[in-house]
Predict the 3D structure of the following.
Amino acid sequence: MSEEIDAEIRTTHVLDLAAEGKRLDGRGPDEYRKITIEPGFVTTADGSALVRIGDTAVVAGIKLEPGKPFADTPNAGVLTTNAELIPLSSPTFEPGPPQPGAIEVSRVVDRAIRAAETIDLTRLCVTPGEKSWVCYVDMHVIDHSGNLIDTSLLAALSALTHAIVPAKRFEIADADYPLDIQHYPIECTFVRLGDAIVVDPTFDEERSAQGRLTVATDEAGHVVAMQKGLIGAFSPDDVKDTVRRAFRHGDELRARARGGAP
Amino acid sequence: MSEEIDAEIRTTHVLDLAAEGKRLDGRGPDEYRKITIEPGFVTTADGSALVRIGDTAVVAGIKLEPGKPFADTPNAGVLTTNAELIPLSSPTFEPGPPQPGAIEVSRVVDRAIRAAETIDLTRLCVTPGEKSWVCYVDMHVIDHSGNLIDTSLLAALSALTHAIVPAKRFEIADADYPLDIQHYPIECTFVRLGDAIVVDPTFDEERSAQGRLTVATDEAGHVVAMQKGLIGAFSPDDVKDTVRRAFRHGDELRARARGGAP
Amino acid sequence: MSEEIDAEIRTTHVLDLAAEGKRLDGRGPDEYRKITIEPGFVTTADGSALVRIGDTAVVAGIKLEPGKPFADTPNAGVLTTNAELIPLSSPTFEPGPPQPGAIEVSRVVDRAIRAAETIDLTRLCVTPGEKSWVCYVDMHVIDHSGNLIDTSLLAALSALTHAIVPAKRFEIADADYPLDIQHYPIECTFVRLGDAIVVDPTFDEERSAQGRLTVATDEAGHVVAMQKGLIGAFSPDDVKDTVRRAFRHGDELRARARGGAP
Amino acid sequence: MGSVGAKEVPVLLSPEGLRIDGRKLDELRPLSIRAGALHQADGSAAVEWGANKVLAAVYGPREVHPRHLQQNHKAVIQCRYNMAAFSVDERKRPGLDRRSQEISKVIGEAFESVVFVEEYPRTSIDIYIEVLQANAGTRCAGVVAASVALADAGIPMADLLPAVAVGKVGGAIALDLKKEEDNFGEADLPMALVPQSGRLVLLQMEGHLTEPELAQALDLGVKGCREIYEQMKRALRERYAVGPTAGASS
Amino acid sequence: MGSVGAKEVPVLLSPEGLRIDGRKLDELRPLSIRAGALHQADGSAAVEWGANKVLAAVYGPREVHPRHLQQNHKAVIQCRYNMAAFSVDERKRPGLDRRSQEISKVIGEAFESVVFVEEYPRTSIDIYIEVLQANAGTRCAGVVAASVALADAGIPMADLLPAVAVGKVGGAIALDLKKEEDNFGEADLPMALVPQSGRLVLLQMEGHLTEPELAQALDLGVKGCREIYEQMKRALRERYAVGPTAGASS
Amino acid sequence: MGSVGAKEVPVLLSPEGLRIDGRKLDELRPLSIRAGALHQADGSAAVEWGANKVLAAVYGPREVHPRHLQQNHKAVIQCRYNMAAFSVDERKRPGLDRRSQEISKVIGEAFESVVFVEEYPRTSIDIYIEVLQANAGTRCAGVVAASVALADAGIPMADLLPAVAVGKVGGAIALDLKKEEDNFGEADLPMALVPQSGRLVLLQMEGHLTEPELAQALDLGVKGCREIYEQMKRALRERYAVGPTAGASS
């Protein structure tokens, strides 16, 4: 019960600050927390990265294995994206099958990667209709202080960018080779706090939010995916304004994901 | 709690009426509610029907897909019957895995279709031991006002009767062709209400019942399946009498399912 | 609640007796309950045994079926061990998916069978990389009065010892032949009751125990598996002493399992 | 029945009217019933019937689990019919398949028709049936075993529930089918009888029977149930004459 | 969209600017809405929209199940969007896949943004959407149906929620995509509008749109929603003018 | 161990008695422990041990979920050991397999042997262990990490639990096996020690050891645990000397 009251007090505080154009951690409405990217974090993966945005941390790992293409896309490899919101990472997550929240993160990240045509799936075909690479993108959330979508996609993209296709190990080619990245989608998430719409929400801001909006952009000036979440509403003008901001942030984050340097 | 008392009052009322040979909706003990059959209701299915018995409604859809025959019947296709008692259709159904009630409906309908040899499964074999048609019969209960078994089987039979094997789409033959129906099973369900045994029970009658008995007959004068359900008992003479009544109703309903006309 | 108090009283009693070097059923600390082995108990299995240790009873059944070898062991058959702790056998078991306790029994028995190289899996290969026998060892606990691990392994071993590979039925060879047993692992389980460490615990002793230790030995003088379970601790000297006792018991039980005679 | 594409149907009935195992049409397979076969259960029984081996255990009246199934005015009966992985020719995956769930339901309803459930409000009476070796007729063997187990547990009931399947083999109505008869026969009709009222609380059927055949099958089944009833009572008398004994096997 | 390795893309837009079914870019498919289509539900609606057939039912406010989801200061809204096995070309396995779970979540959140949940603390309002026949735009059809079902159930809301998807086909922004347009189009953007506030409570997007295209799509969607809004109100007026009628089909 | 049909066994021990990575038989792999590595958990630790990367988090004492597990006289310890999909060579399906469930059980029991659970009746102390990168010995790394996480969370315990696996490679008893040694070695014996009492609360074994070898392995393991114990204490001193720091990696 005290937990519930505590949450209520924090919500009020977050909203009061927002009304004055302020945020709990002193950031401006259009400012991300500190971002660090550590590519190659997991050597058992074919590609990996540990990404932190503020106190939120996600480890993404890529695994490539030979499999069978889908019947309706015999000339293409298979991409499988999965986010695990494990109970280690937050007092609000419970053990058990994936909850709607975890499924939403998986699917929103998956949508951006897929719609942006991040990897050319036809290049993952080995024998049409028979054999193709299955590319697993697993995102393991290890610390949840808000904004899981942006952190997870950034981790996935960084991991993909450095991934090596283990063609030699599986005796499919004479040598391993880097996974071919065509496009670099970046997701930027905003929440409404009263009249303010702020980027990169913390956990407390998400809990206080009156609507969440994620916009994924690519490096060529396209919006490739969007997702409105949580209880709340956005006007079309809010959306247009948010898209503009997402393009600005997208360029900066994209450079980070591609380089992997701080 | 008021829900529980309400149910008890209704039960008493149903039984009191039955003792006078009456039913809540004015029907005689051997009278079905109004039946309507709408074949071809779902165009995405290879065969379909919307069947209503009174306020109960079931949509059945047939899907035929190439698959593998079972090891012990290499020369036969595969028949799979499934009833979904979705929570949309009744306040008593909950989301989640199929409950025993849904499984019973599926299996009792399946038993009638299978025992009657409704379709000649050997004609669904493509290459013995390797490839055969899998015939899915999916029954989607959308309004549950009692007597799901009879409604579901009638919907399944009507859907099968009009089903087309999509042989061209799957490049197995040059043209699609109608599914071959050999026999026409009909299930008639009765419940005991005190000394009375009435056909086509409503939801309230099922809840008040002291036993339920379903008899499936074919057009050639056979009983092909039976199922006693719910708490309650029937004497052998009750059963014999019920079988006689099931044959009478069977003929009438069969004509409806075959024709599809009202 | 009275159930809980009852358990507490029994625990105190068990520990008090143990302090005097006594046990509830009058046994010495290093004495097994009466053991009976009934091989061939289930004729539908390819090998089977009903084993009782005191009031604990387990039926093990072996089934051999053609299947596919694992990719990393193309020249070997597959061994699958499963213990079912069905609710019939104890008031403490509930219906549903396997609980950690059932999984532990399965895995500890499996570990002993596998580590001891009980059966030569390479002899279960039919066509390397393509076809091999899958050997299912199913242990069905039917009466749980303590010491499920020892009883289950003894049942599994007795069943394997008498198993016949159904090569003729599956048209893999012209005749059936006995499964080839290379080694005979035996598991001996001990629990700590205060300062005493007693073998073959009853249900009440397990519930009172301050640690459980299982030691599996083979006929050639090896420890092949161990498992410490329950809340409690053992000193290295306790373990060494227990191992010595396990070898002694192992020889006696092994003779029983191989012979199947009382 | 209805085994599509089956290779060849064996001769199920000799010219003399005898069945593949030499039985007459109205003859039961050998049946042995032992009450109190298990130690942990509040009541139990082991049944060997032809080549079937079936155990039943009863726990309760006890707390209802899960809690929300509790009923204010009566005990709930929870029945679980399960087959061991090795009980059939082709290994069965552990756990309840749809067939087992259906059988659990109809057996539970059969017992709820005779147990005086209103005597134990807010409790659960749990019936567990385990098939260790199957050879047609396991649900009936399960009902017989569970019935004796309930009596062994001291649960008050209107009556015991003898049960048997009747079928049609080689054109004739026959009592208590064994596996080959069930596989290649023309009909299968399992039933459970309340002997004192003469009413059926379990009844299922699959196959092809004309109306007269069905009537004949019902009558033959009732007759079979009455024979089994005597053996059930005998098993219970033995149990209480000689005191509790142990062992699931004979 | 993004159908990797698809064989050949059909011509989705004629030289005259007409779509494969002859519609103009800003034209909706035929839409019929019937309130009160089901008997058991507290409120219901059947929607046929192009070749989509979707049902919605509302139960509640009622007891929360499972109990631990109950909230002290408001009703919880539980939404379940489900597709029948036969509703799509390739048979769908029964039960909620990940796509259905995501859609259930965003639709539930959309309705929680307009329903006056604080009026019914400690209760559940359950929204069930069943897709019987799918042809692109089923989540929007589901929102429209659920909206009318909620009104039919008498649940107080700030407004109805018209919904529609906008997409990009043959290079042009188009309203209310049908299946071929969705499969081979360049973008898909489903949305749900609160007409009185002009705000969006559901918004998703996938594909490729430039910033100006996105702005155009939003505006076209809002326009489409306002048209649909009129039809929704008409359906509710009909329902209460002529009294309850039955039947999921027209 | 026991890798049936494995192609060729590498030389695990050089003539000089050195192991494939140059270690001596009683030498540990490099171990780094960082307390307080996570922000959300009440206590946490990151362990890098050879090529293993393992995290542990502790939540509690807090409400028990699900409720019926609550105990009146003590806290329940719920332990979940999980491997990330990418932590092993062949991708692991997400979720707990049977191996993980067994390990979760024995680790939970090990901690319940040292945590003063009776101080927090009716609560749950939840231990989560996540293996991000695996190279043999992950359960021991998990115990070490969880131990430090419990201390970091301020949970009162009789002692920390150092843990290590001993094995047999190339005929010799060796401390702290790495993956190739584990795969091709002759035995594996993981253990966890209560240093102050000198007793073991976790002990498993698989392979082939004679009685004298087993005794030797136990003694070597205890020695290894005592080394690790010093590092665990150092990590906790560092944590409280320099104040909380962030970051799962070094």
Remarks:
- The mean pLDDT of chain A is 95.
- The radius of gyration of chain A is 19 Å.
